[in-house]
Amino acid sequence: MAFFESLSRLVAAVLFVSPFSHILVQGAGNVEYPVGIANTAAYGTINFTEIFAAYGHDKSNVAFGTSAYNGLTTFMRALPVRCFGADAATKYDVAVLGAPFDTATSYRPGARFGPNGIRQGSRRMSLDSINVAAKIRISDELDVVDCGDVPMVTTDNKVALRQLELANAALLSGSSLRTWEGKSIAKDGKFHPRVLTLGGDHTITLPLLRGVASIYGPVSVIHFDSHLDTSRPRKLVGGPWLPDEVVPVGHGSYFYYAHKEGLLAPDNANIHVGIRAPIDSWEKYADDRAFGFVISHAEVVEEVGWQGIVKAIRDAVGDNPVYITLDIDVIDPGMAPATGTPEIGGFTTREIKKILQGLSGLKVVGADIVEVAPGYDSQDEITQIAAANIGREILGLMAKTPLTE
């Protein structure tokens, strides 16, 4: 009862405070704050250094705050950097780049919202935390920044993909913040930043591989997906294309073009992992082999376990520089429903984490996570959270192994 009497007296006192008064209340830790929202005259006396330091970090002068639930949403709370503008001179080891593009999909669109969805899924995560299973703290080994999104146009796929190609190439052409003992595997012998791209539909992998190949030469691709994505572009009989028109690249044919352009490692040193989608002809498997891939089907995990999947990947890529591209539909739609072309019977999130962790020691020159379409996600954002955790595992692989000979 005494408490309510004291509270009543305090409320009465506040009611009599003039909006222009300088009455201050002493708070814990010697923090002073004005009584009442209307006390605008006291704003100049507020010590924001103390007020914003609730968890031991003064954020009163931070341009863009990042945390689990407030501030600017970046991937794993990475430093936001204007990589193509005012902060272009800033050096880093890994750039996170958004590619909001979904106008080359064959079924459900929506992956243009994937970059921000994956960032949203990463809000609880931090580059400074220790990945216990992988035994790595990313920030100990790499400086990771978030460059935001490439503003890809929505009306012309050729232009949009060119925008991404130029942006990615610009990031890769710089020098990384850190250098490592030994000779770089880059063609020019220098250490360059790596890029983790958040898609976006899977078509974006083609322009990204062009940039990577310009620095490192042809690379072995580890392709996590339920679909092959090596379809030959073809005109349907009686279709709408004129005789002199070419069928444009899409999210099911980009590897055909990557092979034609010489971006992929030779001797079938590239691998699809998690394949389980139906095909319209056995010729697709013959073409896939001719285009440089071997296949690990999703179903074999029942017989060989995640260890067998890891062995198949390592046997395929050897010691080559590796590019990882992961379509979120490699995960079973029960755990990752928010994607454009879902296929049942995929990996669990635990299996994909174990597989990725089993690739420790591979020289990962770049990576992308694609086909996350948040509009189809559950209320608890399970697809976006899964994609964000996959991104953490990929960054862990980069952190563990420098790109040296």
TrEMBL record:
InterPro entries: Agmatinase-rel, Ureohydrolase, Ureohydrolase_dom_sf, Ureohydrolase_Mn_BS. GO terms for molecular function: agmatinase activity; metal ion binding. Residues 1-27 form the signal peptide. Keywords: Hydrolase, Metal-binding, Signal. GO terms for biological process: putrescine biosynthetic process from arginine, via agmatine. Belongs to the arginase family. Agmatinase subfamily. PANTHER family: ARGINASE/AGMATINASE, HYPOTHETICAL ARGINASE FAMILY PROTEIN (EUROFUNG). This is Arginase/deacetylase. It comes from Dichomitus squalens.
